[in-house]
Amino acid sequence: MKIALIAHDKKKDDIVQFSVAYEQILAEHELFATGTTGLRIMEATDLTITRFRSGPLGGDQQIGAMIAVNDMDLVLFFRDPLTAQPHEPDISALMRLCDVYQVPLATNMGTAEVLLKGLQEGFIDWRLLAERRSASQTK
């Protein structure tokens, strides 16, 4: 699966700790991240990450573009809900794309843990479920 890792400045330490804790699971997947978040995770782990620009410089939009062409499977976006973000429209667009294309989106550590543990156990195969739903609707 292709997994995007994004974190606001005040949540970067959290996503780094999360990535260290779940490094074995994350290592089994293709990882993408916005600039500084990806760099910080790579410095703390042995994970290979394709890095995009930082969020305010278009990184959120680059990940959104992957979602729009059905090329992203899961987004872990540790948001800081208490701090105004200068690129809030980009963040809203990214979240909207996740909803439109039914891409699972975790905006906090608790939800991210549930998704990764489900992924590890084989409980989450949302693309297969979406294909089955689509096939049954065309009959």
How would you describe this protein?
This is Methylglyoxal synthase. Residues 1-139 form the MGS-like domain. Helix 1 (12-21) packs across helix 3 (35-44) and helix 4 packs parallel to helix 5 (88-100). This protein has one domain (2-138): Rossmann fold. Helices cover 53% and strands 14% of the residues. Strands 3-2-1-4-5 form a 5-stranded parallel β-sheet, with helices on both faces. It contains 7 helices and 5 strands; from the N terminus they run βααβαβαβαβαα. With 139 residues, it is of the alpha/beta class.
How would you write the strand order of the largest sheet? 3-2-1-4-5
Distance from N terminus to C terminus (CA atoms, Å) equals: 28 Å
* Poorly predicted segments: none
- The shape, in one word, is globular
Beta percentage is 5-15%
> Structural class of the helices, strands and pairings?
alpha/beta
CATH superfamily (homologous) name: Methylglyoxal synthase-like domain
Order of helices and strands: EHHEHEHEHEHH
Average pLDDT over all residues: 89
Give the total of beta strands: 5
Family: Belongs to the methylglyoxal synthase family.
GO cellular component, one term: cytosol
Binding site for substrate: 8, 12, 34-37, 54-55, 87
Keywords: Lyase
